[in-house]
């Protein structure tokens, strides 16, 4: 127990195939503290946070058909998954809010992650950079933003790419050849209750990705093989290219947005006209690609350690066990190294010095607090973090993993839930330079149209709405 107290807990939100515990094995922070890695996907996590600075994270994993819940108190978070996507079961913003509420330090900052939950909101930052640097240095694609379908009447030139809502992996991106098709797409946007953007379709030679992890820079080009205009769909070829001052300026400037991004990447298409068109920035959820993924993971590891050293204090954390007047079963099961030793007393502020407060943009409403499901059961094991099992329950719905296939070398996407039969073997050999990548996404179920509970009801509603929108939009 004495040794266990000398550990800081790092929560890594990532897919299971990325073994972060391995990366942090043997590493120390604050001199002699071990780093205990807890890794889970967003869909397996829940948390409770109290205003007095106490909090607990619950992690549910299925083991042999039994749901195992572990409760622990992370000191730091590394987030490697999209916090939000409009595909089904991809909205984890309530967890980001909870982590911010708990004052958890993280990479990237929770503030920036929250800000990355709307692509046009991020693009607005690119627009600001474009205004500062100018189009020579920062060739941003010309984009138009529509809060809804109503202004989507026509455009001066075609073809364009319409991008609907906040989605990843090429989802919701449509190439539109003429203004009839544009109106068709506008009618689809009318059903989505979200925003859309339109930008010129660039006849491209290849995509460029300039990534920055801490102070490490790499640039890649990705060329479509299968001919799909989205190089992240179908087969593509990936090659590392030389970093230039120009690329460095792009990514350095972008890394300053939202108070600073520890990890980010700028994406551009390189047109057959020889020009670059910047169209996107990715944050810490960006998939690692290319032949240096092991090194990149190492760089992220070092970045996390240096941030932990900077932000964590040696003072043992306080007990999240009996916050306020809570009677929740899960808090009684906490036996985390730090917490179990500390008497329940009034805590000093949590989460390191100077954690930003109140970052939620106005107008966002906190979701009602969800208490972890399951009965109160005694701990079934006496590991340093307690675990308890409950009767098998329905696993969370299928989770589509955002941008994973987008530029990633990974061949599979849309991983099934833990209990489901595997679609494709996930682990894959290390990518070689110029290796062919194949990825395709499939719209699962009702895709980005967030459907109501009853499917027939939803279908009927869709048809009704279609009729209405066609009537109102396209009849003179
Ligand atoms: N305006 C455009 N012109 C040509 N190709 C584009 C354009 N915008 C995107 N693409 C291609 O489509 C891919 C996916 O677009 P992107 O906006 O990154 O969607 P997502 O993030 O959902 O994958 C890009 O990697 C690029 O190859
Ligand atoms: Mg993208």
Q: Summed up, what is this model?
A:
Residues 314-439 are annotated as: Disordered. This protein is α+β, with helices and mostly antiparallel strands. It has helices at residues 2-5, 20-24, 93-101, 110-115, 119-133, 179-192, 245-254, 293-311, 329-332, 337-341, 404-407, 455-474, and strands spanning 7-13, 28-29, 33-40, 45-49, 55-63, 66-72, 76-79, 106-107, 144-146, 160-164, 173-176, 196-200, 204-213, 216-224, 234-241, 263-271, 276-282, 387-390, 436-439.
Describe the 3D structure.
The chain has 476 residues and is of the alpha+beta class. Among the domains are: 7-108, 3-Layer(aba) Sandwich (Rossmann fold); 109-141 and 202-283, 2-Layer Sandwich (D-amino Acid Aminotransferase, Chain A, domain 1); 144-200, Dna Ligase, domain 1, CATH 3.30.1490.20. The chain is 24% helix and 24% strand. The chain has helices at 2-5, 20-24, 93-101, 110-115, 119-133, 179-192, 245-254, 293-311, 329-332, 337-341, 404-407, 455-474; strands at residues 7-13, 28-29, 33-40, 45-49, 55-63, 66-72, 76-79, 106-107, 144-146, 160-164, 173-176, 196-200, 204-213, 216-224, 234-241, 263-271, 276-282, 387-390, 436-439. The strands form four sheets. It has a six-stranded antiparallel sheet with strand order 17-16-13-14-15-19. The radius of gyration is 23 Å and the shape is globular. Mean pLDDT is 77; it is low at 319-453 and 469-476. The structure holds adenosine-5'-diphosphate and magnesium ion (MG). Adenosine-5'-diphosphate binds at residues 141, 161, 163, 167-171, 173, 199, 201-202, 204, 207, 229-232, 269, 279-280, 403, 406. Keywords: Phosphoprotein, Synapse. Residues 314-439 are annotated as: Disordered. Residues 108-310 form the Synapsin ATP-binding domain. Residues 356-368, 379-396, 404-417 have a biased composition (Low complexity).
């Amino acid at each position: 127990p004495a040794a266990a107290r000398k550990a800081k807990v790092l929560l890594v939100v990532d897919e299971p195939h990325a073994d972060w515990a391995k990366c942090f094995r043997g590493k120390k922070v604050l001199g002699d503290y071990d780093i205990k890695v807890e890794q889970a996907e967003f869909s397996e996590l829940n948390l409770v946070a109290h205003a007095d600075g106490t909090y607990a994270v619950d992690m549910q994993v299925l083991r042999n058909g039994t749901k195992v819940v572990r409760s622990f108190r992370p000191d730091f978070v590394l987030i490697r998954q999209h916090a939000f996507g409009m595909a089904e079961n991809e909205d984890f913003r309530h967890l980001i809010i909870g982590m911010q509420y708990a004052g958890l330090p993280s990479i990237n900052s929770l503030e920036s992650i929250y800000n990355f939950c709307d692509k046009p909101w991020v693009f607005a930052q690119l627009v600001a950079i474009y205004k500062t640097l100018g189009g020579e240095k920062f060739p941003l694609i010309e984009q138009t933003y529509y809060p809804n379908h109503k202004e989507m009447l026509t455009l001066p030139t075609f073809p364009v790419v319409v991008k609907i809502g906040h989605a990843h992996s090429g989802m919701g991106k449509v190439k539109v050849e003429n203004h009839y098709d544009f109106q068709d797409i506008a009618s689809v946007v009318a059903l989505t209750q979200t925003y859309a953007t339109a930008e010129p379709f660039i006849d491209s030679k290849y995509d460029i990705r300039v990534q920055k992890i801490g102070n490490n820079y790499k640039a890649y080009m990705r060329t479509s093989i299968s001919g799909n205009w989205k190089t992240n769909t179908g087969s593509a070829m990936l090659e590392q290219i030389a970093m230039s001052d120009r690329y460095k300026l792009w990514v350095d400037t972008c890394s300053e947005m939202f108070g600073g991004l520890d990890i980010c990447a700028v994406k551009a298409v390189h047109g057959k006209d020889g020009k670059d068109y910047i169209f996107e920035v990715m944050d810490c959820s960006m998939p690692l690609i290319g032949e240096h993924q092991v090194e990149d993971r190492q760089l992220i590891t070092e970045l996390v350690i240096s941030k932990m050293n900077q932000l964590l204090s040696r003072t043992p954390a306080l007990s999240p066990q009996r916050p306020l007047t809570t009677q929740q079963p899960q808090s009684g099961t906490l036996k985390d190294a730090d917490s179990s030793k500390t008497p329940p007393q009034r805590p000093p502020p949590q989460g390191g010095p100077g954690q930003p407060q109140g970052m939620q943009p106005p107008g966002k409403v906190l979701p009602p607090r969800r208490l972890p499901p399951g009965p109160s059961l005694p701990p079934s094991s006496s590991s340093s973090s307690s675990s308890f099992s409950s009767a098998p329950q329905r696993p969370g719905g299928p989770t589509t993993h955002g941008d994973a296939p987008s530029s990633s070398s990974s061949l599979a996407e849309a991983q099934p839930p833990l209990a489901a039969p595997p679609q494709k073997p996930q682990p894959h050999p290390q990518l070689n330079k110029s290796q062919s990548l194949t990825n395709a996404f499939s719209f699962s179920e009702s895709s980005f149209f967030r459907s109501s509970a009853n499917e027939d009801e939803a279908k009927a509603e869709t048809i009704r709405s279609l009729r209405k929108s066609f009537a109102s939009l396209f009849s003179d």
